[in-house]
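User: what does the whole thing look like in 3D?
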Amino acid sequence: MPTPPRSRSSHGAQFVAFPPAVAGRSADRVDAVNRGRPGIRCRRRLLTLLIVLVVGLGTPVLVYRTSVQPGAALVKAVFTYGTNVTPPSDYTVIANQVTETPRLPIEVRDAPPASVDVYAPTVRPREAMPMVLWVHGGGFISGTSENVHDFAVLLAQQGFVVASLDYALAPAAHHPVPVRQGAAALRDLVASAARFGGDPSSVFVGGDSAGAQIAGELAAVQTNRALAGAIGLGPAVPVRGAILYCGLYDMRTVGGTGFPALRTYLWSYTGVRDWTSFRDIDQLSVTAQVTPAYPPTFLTVGDTDPFRSQAVGLAAALRAQRVPVAGQIHTEPAGLGHEYQFDFGKPAAVANFGATVAFLRRYGGPR
Amino acid sequence: VIPVLKWSAVVLGTLVLMVVVYAVLVARGG
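Assistant: Here's the predicted 3D structure for the full assembly of 397 residues, as structure tokens:
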């Protein structure tokens, strides 16, 4: 900046003679000049950064602690556990042998709409077929019956009536709504067995991931009067067996599995932020609800699945009650993760499917 | 134009930071 010309007053004192435009500047303009000074500019930048950090870090923490809705929506959008079946190469040929009856409504009082898609072989065998109610996964908050469509088709083609349940999702619906809808679906399935060529006395329940928890609890409800009473369910439908893929079965230990976003799933499903303090949390623990009457169970989980320990715990609880346990809890390092069962590109998934069919034939035949 | 771009970047950056922090919290929330 050029130095203003120095003048001398009549008293000999020096003063700085600013040009009129500079000498008459307002306080605002002084401010404007100061803003440009390096020290103040630096302080303002630091303050802005601080505000951005406080807002950027504080808001998510606050939202995370107060509401499950955004977390559930985010997880639903990002994670797709239990949503994809990679079918075998001859799937198209197999699918042509199966007839699908979609969207049969399941009525449960005071609950959101639910439905089942029913799959049965187009050419019916002479004998009535065992029936399977399948409950899809998705952490209680996502997924539809459509996610297991190809699996249901493959299973039906083996000579079974498969009903895939579309239940009410959390956080809109909480426990035990899906269990009640599953029980209603079982009753409807038995009632309409003749329509699909099914054997009403040979009914199985099955599910994957969160669906395995629901199916496991559903089997417990049919065989444990105290639990059925507590959930408010009527007469039980006899269940021949349970097929549980990679589920969570013990609410006392599941927190330690490190399963991603587990807190969001269980907060959504129980409606309680600290889900371990949910009043009915024991009802969700299949391990705590098994009785000697619990049906024979097919259990499988991959070696790298965080829920592996859950299957180990349930197998022990079932054996303690002398309930037959089939299936494979993988221990060998095979890189089989969550929902490996639906990737038919993996030999282990093909083997598991074969074992599932064998289990259904073993326990589903005429008595 | 440049200050507008600068502040848009700050707002967008904050939003991205918020989503990232939230996603990390949710994913780690075992």
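In plain terms: The longest strand of chain A covers residues 198-208. Chain A has 15 helices and ten strands.
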